[in-house]
Amino acid sequence: QVQLVESGGGLVQAGGSLRLSCAASGRTRYGMGWFRQAPGKEREFVARITWSGSNTYYADSVKGRFTISRDNAKNTVYLQMSSLKPEDTAVYYCATGMGLNYDYWGQGTQVTVSS
């Protein structure tokens, strides 16, 4: 069983930065992903990092602005978000699972970007 707890969300002005954290417990030797869901929209992929951290993947909408990283000694994955835009407003979730599956999800953290 894996438990994920996100933190670091909040209210920020457009152009600002936030760093989200996802603390994992249990069997965590998997790739990790960040997703987001805006009001009235479907959940969408944001970024992914492999277990080793050597490979990262990003949605086109955040490429160049967001950076995913992990500290396996702390069982924590981060999402550094810069140059934030109002359209980045959403609940952000971290998720993990075997292979490319996302079987375990956190409860989410709200990010609100004001214009």
Proportion of residues in β-strands: over 45%
Could you tell me the mean pLDDT?
A: 95
H/E series, N to C?
EEEEEEEEEEE
Cα(first) to Cα(last) distance is 40 Å
Largest sheet features: 7 strands, mixed
Q: Tell me the number of helical segments per DSSP (H or I, 4 or more residues long).
A: 0
Model regions low in confidence, pLDDT < 50 over at least 5 residues: none
Structure write-up:
0% of the residues lie in helices and 53% in strands. The chain contains no helices and eleven strands. The strands form two sheets. Strands 2, 4, 5, 6, 9, 10 and 11 form a seven-stranded mixed sheet that branches. A hairpin with a 4-residue loop joins strand 7 and strand 8 (76-81). The N and C termini lie far apart (40 Å).
What is the topological layout?
Elements: E1 2-7, E2 10-13, E3 18-26, E4 32-37, E5 44-49, E6 56-58, E7 66-71, E8 76-81, E9 90-96, E10 104-105, E11 109-114
Parallel strand pairs: 2-11
Antiparallel strand pairs: 1-3, 3-8, 4-5, 4-9, 5-6, 7-8, 9-10, 9-11
